[in-house]
Amino acid sequence: MVQKEEIKEIFKIRQGDANKGDFGYVAIMGGCLNYSGAIKLANLSCSALRAGCGVSKLIVPKSLSNIVAPYLLEQTLFTIDDEESHMLFSKEQIDEALKKVKALAIGMGWGQGRDNQKILTYILENYEIPVIIDADGLNTLSSMDKEILTKSKCKIIVTPHLKEFERLTGIPIEEINKHKSEIAKKFAQDNHVIVLLKGKITIITDGTEELQVDRGCAGMSTAGSGDVLSGILVGLLGYNEPNVKTIAAGAYLAGLAGELAEKETNDISMIASDTIKNIPNAINQIRNYSGEKHER
Questions:
Q1: What pTM was estimated for this model as a whole?
Q2: Contact assessment for residue 41 and residue 35, using Cβ atoms and an 8 Å cutoff
Q3: Which residues of 104-121 are buried (b: 16+ CB within 10 A; e: fewer)?
């Protein structure tokens, strides 16, 4: 299991003359009208900032702009033309949205728009940035030829829960549960991606290296917790290399922040924004690691 001392360097103290450009512009692309909340989209972009990126940009369908904007404070907003709240493919708008962007998370609350495959394909074929594919991004990918993954210029990170991984691989959940590590590693190796397979024990692998994270709590079983994780991951990729260690650090940070949030609230009342509020506390704990044994 990943321990604090293994990931401490990712959260090193910053120099006094640092500026936002040093820590990366990241983007989060998703949302549609049927998605259950503008607040969750805002949480995504907020968790990216809390994880340390310089600028967090939320890319949403144009028809959602007035709904989402009131929940954004430090984050920025970019809109894409849409049809019935589903994004339409526009090379020009995508290119404008992704200017200066160092890492992208795509798919959260995206829905099943008719242009989703075109948008995902264009990004994977034309950008050389880390791309986290989650939620409806994974559903979109599941219906596509997986050859797009091996041909992509991007460093791709897929973050499925078990049902999403079943759709992605075609392997029944029962079989995945018996051989999680082996199946995750093979999928990562065959498709040249990093897999973060969510669970009580979260597995992170690129097909060669594997790390496991056991942080988290029952209070995180609430709407938006997966979004917070995606936000943290893309935030870390704003200023860290897209490798197994960085992704494992994100999973550890999310789980530890959730544990701290549950202590402040309880396992019943806790909501996803409680986890976000505790990201700073979790980073402080990781930084202050002094050789103590792994505690829960």
A1: 0.95
A2: yes
A3: bbbbbbbbebebbbbbbb
Asked if 245 and 204 touch (Cβ cutoff 8 Å), the reply is no
Per-residue pLDDT of the chain (296 residues; tens, 9 = 90+): 999 999 999 999 999 999 999 999 999 999 988 765 666 777 778 999 999 999 999 999 999 988 888 888 888 999 999 999 999 999 999 999 999 999 999 999 999 999 999 999 999 999 999 999 999 999 999 999 999 999 999 999 999 999 999 999 999 999 999 999 999 999 999 999 999 999 999 999 999 999 999 999 999 999 889 999 999 999 999 999 999 999 999 999 999 999 999 999 999 999 999 999 999 999 999 999 755 544 44
* Residue 262 DSSP SS3: helix
Q: Helices 38-50 and 225-237 meet at what angle, rounded to 10?
A: 40
Instruction: Tell me phi and psi for residue 105, to 5 degrees.
Output: -115, 130
Is 88 within 8 Å of 82 (Cβ atoms)? yes
Query: Is-contact 52 128, C-beta < 8 A?
Result: no
Q: How far apart are CA 154 and CA 193, in angstroms?
A: 9
From 2.30.30.140, 1.10.3880.10, 3.40.1190.20, 3.30.1490.190, which CATH number describes the 22-287 domain?
3.40.1190.20
Rounded to 5 degrees, φ, ψ at 56 are -120, 120
Q: By the 8 A CB rule, do 256 and 275 touch?
A: no
Beta bridge partners of 61: 80
Q: Domain ranges in the chain? A: 22-287
Residues linked to residue 95 through DSSP beta bridges, in sequence order = none
Which residues does residue 80 pair with via DSSP β-bridges, in sequence order? Answer: 61
